[in-house]
Fold this protein.
Amino acid sequence: MDNTVQIHLDLREPASQTFWVKQSWKPCSHRLSIQLPVWTPGSYTVRDHVQHLHSLELHSGESQVPLRRSGPSSWRADLSELTTVEVRYAVEARDLTVRTCFLDPTFASLCLAGAVMEVEGCRWQTHQLEISVPDTWEAFVPLQRNNHFWIADDFDALVDSPVHAGPFKIEQFLVKGYTHELLLIGSPPSGWPKNLLSDISAVCEATCRLMDSPPAAGDRYQLVLQMRAEGYGGLEHDHGAVLQFNWHTLAQPDGYRKLLQLVGHEYLHQWNVRRLRPQEYRPYDYSQAIVSESLWFAEGITSYFDLVTTMIAGCSDRKSFLVDLSEELSRVLMTPGREVQSLACSSEEAWVKLYKASPPSRDSQVSYYGLGAATAFCLDVRLRQKQTSLARLVRKLWQTHGVCRRGYNREDVLALVREHDQSLAEDLISWLDQPASLPLQSIVSSLGLRLEAVASKDPYHGLTLKEDSGQMLVRRVAAKSPALKANLVVGDELIAISGRRLRRLNDLPLLLRGQSSVAITYSRHGHLAETLLNPDEGVDRWQLDWDPRATTKQMALRDRWFQIL
Ligand SMILES: [Zn+2]
């Protein structure tokens, strides 16, 4: 085991919300270089995990060796001899997301991108992980286990392995005969849904049917589901996924379906994005932001298919699918930024925009998740017209680029589309590069469906407000909105509408109702001023519905589309 990098995580002081890391290896060069990843794969923004690291030391034998910082997250040292060295440091773990580290006396949830150092020259060597936990805890890691150690084939496999620890029991379920594990952390107030395990298993099986493949992770897949009072998120891994869901959403009528869709989404990622990966991420560069225009394929197509896996699994029906697709399309259509940012740009700018979004972002940005799903929908329907499907295209790309772990790019996707429809390939280029170019209405109508705006009962003003210590502050002024025409800006404090003091957020629609023009008193930079706002008719959302006048041809296409596979 001479070239193995040994890692020890010490979680035995959970109340400190800090854990200690020791990493040792036998160097092969007198110049030593180490760095902590600056981002977490699957979450495309620079997080500077190093902000949580302290007390870093390097030891060689009995002596401490000075480390020189070569960048915010990297260090160097000169070694006089090539004997085993050890770095030691502490990591503060107070950030409970799927992409960061958290530790408290209840449990630990660690994303190792924020915890382990990449050692220059050792990336492709075996990494051996040991974890010390409090007496009543057990640790869970989706890696092969060898007595007290977990074995990662290389640094990438280590970083990709989430660590969970606590007084938990793990459950097993089967997918196509392959053993999977389910780790439940927390619980809803009324307990877990009684069919949870079998429904999760059915959604995973449905995803395998979609991909026409056994589980890509084989017999080693660990699904971690954290049930919380708030929060929502998921992060995919080669051999599992970490999900955060909240019980308020679960209690909604469609909450359980949303939970199963999140499971399906992350499960599909074991193919799409983990093994079938945009070429820019083969291999990952953990030291900096790496731009890719293909995130729409990784996330948008996965988001489209996650709406249907519950249907394939028999956990939902066509009607629910249309409701969910309506929501997805509605979000896109209600985002003015879709007229500004193209789908390819949205992917490329993830690092600086999607993950740093604020309320005004909606006017200049569109999410590659939502627009990507809408694009996947259009692609799927157009491919159906050529007697094929998006699922078949993804399966083919999986065979040509996923199984053998070649990265794919735009040309690879276009080439597969061209095999069936030259003009669709041309259209896809404009859908990727031209903002607001998706022909949603004509695609919907080709299925004998209608996509219609649902009028809002409240007048439209275009303001997003936030109540802050009794002040009604403007957080967003929507593009082309009445509020923009009234010259209101972000940061203004709204004082009164037509002479009536504005005390609560809910008062705004009430004071605008039935008015064609109102005087708004506001404060800007400490000065009071007044402006006129002319409310408009608003759109609440967009909704898909059956078209009673659908032709036989349209209904036939719709039936083929509903087959999905
Ligand atoms: Zn995803």
Remarks:
- The chain has a mean pLDDT of 97.
- The longest helix spans residues 295-312.
- Residues 265, 269, 299, 302 surround zinc ion (CB under 6 Å).
- The first strand starts at residue 5 and ends at 10.
